[in-house]
Structure prediction request, 779 residues.
Amino acid sequence: MSRRRQILLLAAVGLIAAASGFGMHWWRLSGASSGAEAVMRLRLPDLAGQEQAMSQWHGRVLIVNFWATWCAPCREEIPAFVKLQAKYGARGAQFVGIAIDQRDKVADFAREFGINYPVLLAGIDMVEVTRQAGNRVGALPYTLVFDREGRIVASELGKAKETELEQRLRSLL
Amino acid sequence: MLLSMRYAVTLVLVLASAAGAAEPQLLEPEQAFRLSARIARHDALEVRYQIAPGYYMYRDKFRFAVEPAELRLGTAQLPPGKRKVDKFFGDVEVYRDEVRILVPLESGASVPRLVLAAVSQGCADVGVCYVPQEQKVELKFAAYDPQAGSPFVAAVAERTGASPFIDSPGTAARGEDDRVAELFRGGFWLMIASFFGFGLLLSFTPCVLPMVPVLSGVIAGRGGHLTKTHGFLLSLAYVLGMALTYAAAGVAAGLSGAVFAAALQSPWVLGAFAALFVALALAMFGFYELQLPVALQSRLADTTNRLHGGHFMGVFSMGILSALILGPCMAAPLAGALLYISQTRDVVLGGTALFAMALGMGVPLLVVGASAGALLPKVGPWMETVKRFFGVVLLGVAIYIVSPLIPVSVQMVAWGVLLVITAMYLRALDPLPHGAHGFERFSKGVGVVALLAGAAYLIGALAGSRDVLQPLSALRMGARAVEAAPVAFQRVDDLAALKEAVRAARGTPVMLDFYADWCVTCKEMERYTFSDPAVRARLDRLVTLQADVTRGTQAHGALLRRFRLFGPPGIVFFDRDGREIDGVRVIGFQSAERFAAVLDRVLAAQ
Prediction:
């Protein structure tokens, strides 16, 4: 292979790599924005059976937590959410829990832990929505932070770190 | 100096990858918990989960069910697990690494095969849990040996929702097994078979068939003394290589569809797609040539030639590369196939369909390999006809795509025009030359049929018939009482609502109608068909659901995808147990008579 050919080949490989990288980036970005829309468009029943539209919280700094009572790590982080909701709710922060679970269990848990924010119920299809919003393997807990414009600014798979979350809330409020 | 540079680069790379790995690298649930099962004894199944390191499963979250219904499972014998102290649940038992569970088969009905559905739930040590998942394994008694049992069979990769531990919103907990999850199937194998057929036809186009003997020679290499088996195996290696590349393209198309997920269905998207198909069709008619740049093609061909024939690996890589050389006959149909796949947004279907298509394309090569060329049709101008056939198919797809947007009468005119023009290309009205070949006679015959059918469409459309499948129905006499109250549809907007509605309807068959405001065909269906008294009488015995997908939300997309529908109009039916009834789907417009017949079949289904 001549030197010129080698350079050409390398350039071609580089171009393809760059293009696919850019494509991937674009794909992931577009996934995130359509994921945000998918979450914002949801209408789900709350514990009282009343249907709630996610869009009603548009304009607040929204923290959406996908969880379930059968998921131990999910239960562990709830007290921190309750605390942060009490502390920053008045300044425009809004936590919303979406439980992929059975109504009775969620209701008991919410009472026991004094959940002070809306908890909505979802079926197993919700996992697909979280996948669209960047939850690659569809595991729980999964937490999304939306800014006041309804864009996803942070996502966390697994237990959310309280201090990190608090800092982020402060910067967004 | 140079060496230290190299270390520096390596260090940077390692650091970069470490930074990228900040988020836990988690496995998909079906990889973290790998299910396989076997028939261990004539009266027991053995279920095995291989659990990835760092993952665990809960002992109390396993549920098993079996099909067909004659079989029943006994209580699963779960081995003791490891104690895990949980802050909230107290002591729980979990499994790690591997667990084997014996599940007795209680009733001894003799069936050739059974499908085990296993629900399980597990978590990862990094602090996340997976939603309960259902996996399925198909076991055949033919593989059972009384001494050793049958070997383990892996679960089929499909992501079905299982929900014994989860409510559909708004319902009380129910522990029974959920059949709804597995009723969304059908059409898959038909699709695969059609792609195989198209592949076979594509191999009879002028840029493929003449190359087959040449290619066969290249594959065999310069060995010369080749047995038929060896020749066949070499060809097979080549075809498999080619099929692999195509499958990758199919998977990519399936994935790329996700990008359009938000746009989903709208008149604009449908119109643009149809226009693309028309453009591709024109390429097949020779208005222009669509192919990879010649320079790139010859470069690829060079690389291919440098590989050695006669060796399996060499031939296999040849196959992989040669799939990239797209000649003028291949590019347009392939683009059409990929477009179609991207619309279904189904990665599995995309990969399998394109794989099947490549296998179809490889059939002549395999035949040549096995028969040393004796069984191949003669090269000739008839191959141009095959090429144009694809043009007609692509145009047909274009009409099909826009059919929801245009009135049935316009659809009928479009089909009529397409058929008549096809007939002209097939020389339906030209006289046959003396001593015409068999193929010329055959093609003229097809042309005449197309001409008659096309004329029927045009006449039917003008006579006021509104049924694509019965274009001349208006010529029959018959008065019809119109005016009835509109059908009272129960609205469903997502899969959860559908599941719930189907469950609530248990004991009554269910009809699910996909509708959109922009769907002209849907409105015609309401006006001409649903209003018919005979149809109404039957509809009243069904639970009627309607999904209005005008807004095209993600949930709507998921609904359409579950039923592998392009978009409205589409009607699917469920039997009294909530399973979809195969073979009675209604896609597109149907007259009252035909639709009533479909409803009769639905009502008769057990």
Summary: The domain at 39-172 of chain A is CATH 3.40.30.10 (Glutaredoxin). Chain A is about 50% helix and 20% strand. Chain A has a mean pLDDT of 83.
